[in-house]
Amino acid sequence: MYRIGQEEIDAVARAINSKDFFKINGSGQEVLHFENEWKSFVGSDYALLMTSGYAAIVSALIGIGAGPGDEVIVPAYTYIATALAVLETGAIPVIADADETLTIDVEDVKRKITKNTKAIIPVHIQGFPSDMDGLKNAVKGTNIKIVEDACQSAGGMYKGRLLGSIGDAGTYSFNYFKIITAGEGGAVVTNDRKIYERALIYHDAGAVAFFGDQLNGISEELFGGREYRVSDITGAILREQLKKLPYIRADLKKNQKLLLSLLTPKYTQAPSHDFEGDLGTTVALRFGSEKETRSFAERCAANGIGVTIPFDTGKHVYTNWTQIMEKRGALNPSMDPYKFPVNKDLQMDYTHDMCKKTLELLSRTAYILVNPDWPEETVKDIAARVLDI
User: Fold this and answer.
1) DSSP 3-state assignment of 193?
2) Does some domain include residue 65?
3) pTM for this structure?
4) Is 178 annotated as catalytic?
5) Domain range spanning residue 185?
6) The CATH number of the domain where 149 resides is what?
7) Which residues in the chain belong to E strands, given as ranges?
8) What is the reported pLDDT for 389?
9) Measuring CA to CA, which residue among 44, 38, 42, 47 is closest to residue 242?
């Protein structure tokens, strides 16, 4: 969470004072307005606001028709929710290596595509853009869909297009730790009417047919789904947060660029598929070995500078995805995709060393997280202390 204040407080008060803040209402219609504003911002035809990034990924996967018998390729470096969302549909997550940018490796994706591949989920982790051109070329001429996980990258870009708007569907998170926030929240965007209709039905199965005119113009038949609906309080907060997003992004980028300009004469910046589009949340430095990286982090800490080594970020690294690595996809075995007969021949032979390249890159990378509210003097002071170690 970066910037939140009186505007959001006033928005919440506006929603509550309406005494009509269920999602479907005749008053403020904050969720509806946010969805319209978000799709306009992103440049997509359709948008749905819901409870979380996880809910958004599941709903998008349901929208493309993912289910038992399908494989969905995910990167080895992403939060576990990306892989768990695949299991929610009954499909099996297939884990691919990261490339030098720490986003999904297109060449490994190509090696892992089979006749059962339904989708690929590129994750723009830390706001680092994935190689979207490479992925689109990899699936050209197939029925494989691309569902972008832009949960950590709202406002980031790839070659002039906003992350989340490039694949068949894009997903976002608005929880407390994201670029803009309502404490919790997520969204799906797409230009595909079928994906939109299915995601609409799935994310609000208990109410979409019974409140308002949400099914006007919907041709998809109703089916069972989940309750990922949010109230107008969430919509009201996010409408104010969206107004701030361009300024948050601009200040993140300004501080990231300044810090890098001061550090790169001495340190090596990790590569990027589009540095200008990179959201700016993180300065990523690459070292020759894990030992060198840890020594750098320890010396920074002693000098009052916080440094994160992504290898240590727990559930963001596939080796720590307990439920996935141990193939326990549900409490009830009858509901566990790993035990579905139709999935028995899919790629699920997980081992801790299956993505050695990812582990090696993560161990040789150090992050300095950027704050958009740092004044220039603070950025220069941080750089000076890092250079002094």
Assistant:
1) helix
2) yes
3) 0.97
4) yes
5) 6-241
6) 3.40.640.10
7) 46-50, 71-75, 92-96, 117-120, 145-149, 157-158, 161-162, 169-173, 186-190, 268-269, 282-286, 365-369
8) 85
9) 38
